[in-house]
Structure formats: C-alpha cells, structure tokens
Predict the 3D structure of the following.
Amino acid sequence: MAGDMTLEELVDTFSFFDDWEDKYRFIIDLGKGLESMPDSDKVEANLIRGCQSQVWLTHKAEAEHLTFALDSDAHIVRGLSAVVLIAIQQRPAAEIAALDIEAIFAELDLLAHLSVTRGNGLRAMVARIKAVANSQAN
C-alpha cells in the first residue's frame, strides 16, 4: 500500500477520515504494507536512537536518488515509518535534506495526536534520514 502511494494521495486519504481512531487504523495498515527488513539488517548500526520502540533504517544510494528501508517492532511505528517513506522515497539526497517533513506532519496534524515519546522518536527517525541525505548530497 505505502510503496505506490504518493504524498498527495496520503494527505488526501488522511483528510478523508473524520476521527483519529480511523486515522490510526489507516497508519497501522500502511505499516502492514511495508516490506519486512531482513534480520541481517536489524543490527545495532542500523538502530535509530531516541525511539521508544526498536526502529531500524537502511539506505541505498542509487544514481539519482536514495532508497530507504525502515522497520520496527511496533505496529504504529511501522505505520509512521511508512508515512515518512512516502514523503522521502526515491528522491535525490539534496531534496530529502531540504524537505520540511515537519510541515508534512503539521498538515496531517500528526504530532498533536502522538505521545511525546512517539513524537520524539519520529523526529529522531527524520533526523537520521536527513543526516544520511546530507552525507550523500555533499
């Protein structure tokens, strides 16, 4: 589901739901659509610090863009990972580094409906992605 959804489609679909229970279910469904990361990639070096749950990040630098993989041991975090991937996937490193992901979260009103620790974890995920993008853009 997440792999072929555009950011515009995500925002449109999210706005379709009236209550947050439905939005949470949608986010969890997005996470179910993520491909599981192989256990060989679930290593300390790929673990994102600052997340309440275990979250792993890998990336590949391709000719024109970066491809990321995220996985988590928590359903809601897998869903939040899917939201982040929809925003950043298959973009050039410089574009990812410059992307205002917080604005996307604000448009979805996401952070207001997450616990402080989940919000901090989401920011840690974005910070790690931006660090990778910055290192690849230079």
About this structure: DSSP finds six helices and two strands in the chain. Residues 2-137 form a domain with the Sufe protein. Chain: A fold (CATH 3.90.1010.10). The chain has a mean pLDDT of 90. The first strand starts at residue 55 and ends at 61.
